[in-house]
Amino acid sequence: MTAVVDELVITEPGVYDIPEDVYHADPVPGGSLSASGAGKLLSPSCPALFKYDRDNPKATPRKVFDVGRAAHKVVLGSGPELVLVDRERWDTNEVKAKVAAIRGAGGVPLKRDEWDMVHAMAAALREHPTAAALLHPDYGHAEQSLFWVDKSGGVWRRARVDWLRVRGPGRLIVPDYKTCVCAAPDGLDKVINDRGYHRSGAWYLDAVRALGLDDQPAFVLIFQEKTPPYLVTVVEPDREALRIGAIENRIALELYRHCTETGVWPGYADDVIPVALPGWVAARYNQEIR
Questions:
Q1: Bond from prior residue into 229 cis (ω within 30 degrees of 0)
Q2: Is 47 helix (H, G, I), strand (E, B) or coil?
Q3: Is residue 243 predicted with pLDDT exceeding 80?
Q4: Which of 1, 247, 265, 268 has minimal CB crowding within 10 Å?
Q5: Which domains occur in the chain, in start order?
Q6: Where are the beta strands (DSSP E) in 166-287?
């Protein structure tokens, strides 16, 4: 059952219906680790960058994320207020002030073409039988926050899933909605690896199991293109992908626990690192002098 909280402090594991900004501010006393935070601890990032971002949260989301956040709102029915700023020019002082005020209030300002686009995306997604069924408003709740304590090491963990289905027959499927440039299936393996979606999938499944929501849940990604006809592809990372994601998450959890206990958040390296030129440079050079 989803808990609705008034106070911004969470001390008991469970599923909570809380605003996005409360979740990202981390309402767990002493701190908790999210899937995105776990990724920030690992290479090519490092614990020092994780700690800096945690201690210096960005005041407002960047413009580059507006379309994705807006699409989430229209598709899922939950999220920040969308405000149409129907002006041809956004570089006037009046419009700049209006946009700043909307962002300051937590909303997402959209141009007319962006507004039309996200609503067309939502309509297209509802025509996709699998995606529409996974996100059917009668059978689940959007933007649910899950908090639990990891059995190994006692670290508090948190996750915010796009959609949590009301428990029914069959396996609990956790869908994650992503907007993208191309949803062609043959390129999504690289996207999943590059964006760490296999790690977030394993993280969400840990949350579902830890909270007793399902002992054999499934994870799928719903990719939707941001250009007409707004094609949708639903993929399920295979067992090996999720196994690797779980291993990487475990490494991040141990690193987080160690850094928290010691107060030391290392950067990339403390020693001198030998670096060679890229292999293709040496190959070209050797070819030229033959």
A1: yes
A2: helix
A3: yes
A4: 1
A5: 2-268 (3.90.320.10)
A6: 173-180, 218-225, 232-235
